[in-house]
Amino acid sequence: MASPAALADYSSRRGSLIADDRSMRREFTHANAQSDKEIKADKIIRKIRALEAETIWREDHPDVKHPFPGMEFLTGKSIIMKTRIFEILSKMPKGALLHSHLDATVNAEYLLDLALKHPFMHIRLQQPLTAETLSSNIPVFRALPAAYFTNHTSLMSAEVGSWISLQNARNSFPSDFGGVKGFDKWVIGSLTINPTEAYDTHNTVEKIWQKFTGIFLTSAGLIRVQPIWLEYIKQFFRSSVDDGVSYVEARINFLPKFMVGSDGQENIPHREWLLLFEQALKDVKEEFAQQGRGHEFIGAKIIYSTIRAITPEELDWYTEDCIALKKEFPHLIIGFDLVGPENAMKPLIYYIEPLLRFRTRVEEEGLDIPFIFHAGETLGDGTEADVNLYDAILLGTKRIGHGYSLFKHPKLVDICRRESIAVEVCPISNEILRLTSSMLMHPLPALLNNGVPIALCSDDPAVFGNMGLTFDYYQVFVASEINGLSTLASLARDSIQFSMMDAQEKAQATAVFEQRWAAFVDYVLTCEV
Amino acid sequence: MASPAALADYSSRRGSLIADDRSMRREFTHANAQSDKEIKADKIIRKIRALEAETIWREDHPDVKHPFPGMEFLTGKSIIMKTRIFEILSKMPKGALLHSHLDATVNAEYLLDLALKHPFMHIRLQQPLTAETLSSNIPVFRALPAAYFTNHTSLMSAEVGSWISLQNARNSFPSDFGGVKGFDKWVIGSLTINPTEAYDTHNTVEKIWQKFTGIFLTSAGLIRVQPIWLEYIKQFFRSSVDDGVSYVEARINFLPKFMVGSDGQENIPHREWLLLFEQALKDVKEEFAQQGRGHEFIGAKIIYSTIRAITPEELDWYTEDCIALKKEFPHLIIGFDLVGPENAMKPLIYYIEPLLRFRTRVEEEGLDIPFIFHAGETLGDGTEADVNLYDAILLGTKRIGHGYSLFKHPKLVDICRRESIAVEVCPISNEILRLTSSMLMHPLPALLNNGVPIALCSDDPAVFGNMGLTFDYYQVFVASEINGLSTLASLARDSIQFSMMDAQEKAQATAVFEQRWAAFVDYVLTCEV
């Protein structure tokens, strides 16, 4: 009774509806049609993904309770790193990294090593050291002027609150606390979020943000020291490039008006920060050029940021500071943002006067400093953080940082597609900061199907452990049957297209990307299943 | 520099954008404009909600780790029940309950009491009883023919696998297992999902579904016994009406061709099930009429369902069975569905031939049996369960059961709005079955803002503990700053409008609802803040 004609008709209507539903996806709008090679490579990685879903993700892992592809990153990371998909994606060219907070971009081990090179780096306790409370005993770091150096040789003998040199504190760390290794583990624990915190003791958006913001206060003492900062930035560039990232736009928090110099004084103003940034850029470009990898690193720029906890009057100072820096470093300053926990701090509308003033001032000065706002990094519906999305868009934001709640807003989704406002999606960050419990619950598929331009970003990889972009690409790739090789390419291409590079840089970045992409496809074709 | 005119202009554009973004919400399309009273009542409940978010939801609750409004239902239920919002919502008229599985609609305590009235009800063990393994030791229930009655007096003395009368088993339950109370707790535990299972031991969609489907196998032995079934249905109606529900459409699983009669034989065919349903309906209507509450209960109908694990050939038998029942009980059978875990069982496309045949047959017979399909009850993206949404819509589904992944599909969302395909959203079910970790992560706001008609539903309240609809309304109401009194009214009105009642019944249900709604608003006005 269901005739072949009826079945054929149904099948044809079905194919059309599915195609129509997915027709806005940007992988279809990118000019590059899939080559035969890409079609073959796509089949290969889908096959490996399916195989690994049924093998490594189904096996018993003694330390991992409920393994599945796209699971909580901090628990699943050890499994991810054993997969072939991870190995393959680590070789993929990723385009640009458009959303990362500079203070959380270099892994904690490396940062500690950097700090340990400097005798002026000091540490102090806020409470007595005991083995039981070690993990919640957050140390304080600072570069001290020589006049304040102490002769304490151990954290145990020094009074709580007294400074002791970092090197001494480490070398004398009690053996029942693990000695030198125990010291490193303790310090690194204070600079990162661990699975117990994310998934148990701090398992709400509000609680994990308390730990998260605490980390920035702690790490600033180590990072924001002139000679360390320079090396820190260089390492950020190197590790990004090693992961296949060609270009970065880092958000730098300019709230503190000075960083600490080698003399231990807080006296390095913002314009010197930019000189250091420029120096790091130049040095690392030379390094890569010397290795014959010069084409792999296009460059780096800065989104000027301050914290959404200041007063509107204070914001006027920062916007003028931003304008002054833009005039001196027009190639480095490419946007303005307000950062910090959206649920807890001030909404954009609170700053509407200084923000409108800033826009007028920028025009008067004939400058180009677009807003690139964080907005909608929230589970709230109609809350101030959610409503930030309206203001970000009305204020002409070039991109949206996170836009986690964007999918709820039909008109805003429409505007983002039509006006090409890209969203900087940070999958692992969203999950660790408890907006989503796993990649499977993330609303990204809704944005992709609605044709919103997307750039995947790592946000704070030093805190989350998702160094580079491979981990974020991994989580996105394994959480959807729709996502394929062309999705990966589309995300990487969008990251270049929606960066703030100038036309010439973009052309260069695109040419390099396409060449590397072709090589990547060739590599995938060699991956036997 | 930001002139008053510029600020006023911004403010006006902002208001327009927000209004535009929310303009599709159905609370604005319902003819009923908000009265002054409603506007006042809305302010009152918003104020209480805000107050309780900052008081009861922030207090320390020794048994609840991370309390917040919209949290995991099984953990938060005790707090919910202490709130004034819950008390208020429990008095709200709810319209229709459009998605519930009959076998999971009466609370387990009541069911056990019903079963204990019948000496023919028996129980047996599948493994020896020990105190340690009690909670995982799932009993088996059955009504036995008298010839099979045993003289075992205790589960401890009977061999594993031997039947013993339920009454005896209970009365002799060992005191070190808690005696009679321990027995009740054990049985009820086998019929419900507890917080440890949902949020710890079975904390993935796949694992919790294993427990979930197991419960239906266990409870069938108690429920699908003619005299119990009749009382069971009556209690479902009563408790629904007591919660403010005026009308229900229950999915009944017709997979087993017979239920057990009072004689312990499996010999009661489907048409007799419908006679029993009709009897229950008549009896409960009379009960309410006698209490002067006749207007509170409009009626109940049935969505014929079978399990999506059968073969396409077997489905032909069920569709013909459905047609035969529809002919005899045209006022009771109002739709057809395939149920069971979508991720694990067969997709709609697997049944495309019998389903198309069914549609032709229904037309030939001049009947009206629309599909009312489960679809998209999944975290999958592009998986068979997600793709079910396309097939449900192409097959002309009148409503969509769950549609959890619908928000990802722009064209389907559009179709649902334009063609008035309502979605039966089951917030608490979705959370306990681990599609979402809390109401804050649920995609419902996206559907509401897109103007998709929504009916809130309880799905399997006997298993989840969300009896009635108050709990589901609670979770939705407290998880959004946008949702207000008019949202609640809109959801209830949609449940009536998108039910399968005939025009006359709908008119009656609507008239009763509007009258009760007005009384509810008056009541809210009396709720001091």
TrEMBL record, chains A, B:
Record InterPro entries: A_deaminase_dom, ADGF, Ado/ade_deaminase, Metal_Hydrolase
Organism: Pholiota conissans
EC number: 3.5.4.4
Transmembrane segment boundaries: none
Keywords for this protein: Hydrolase, Metal-binding, Secreted, Signal
PANTHER family: ADENOSINE DEAMINASE, ADENOSINE DEAMINASE 2
Subcellular location: Secreted
GO CC term (a single one): extracellular space
The name this protein goes by in its record: adenosine deaminase
Primary localization: secreted
Cofactor(s), names only, from the UniProt record: Zn(2+)
Family of this protein: Belongs to the metallo-dependent hydrolases superfamily. Adenosine and AMP deaminases family. ADGF subfamily.
Reactions listed under catalytic activity: adenosine + H2O + H(+) = inosine + NH4(+)
Pfam family, one: A_deaminase
Adenosine deaminase domain segment(s): 205-508
SUPFAM superfamilies: Metallo-dependent hydrolases
UniProt-recorded Gene Ontology molecular function terms: adenosine deaminase activity; metal ion binding
GO BP, one annotated term: adenosine catabolic process
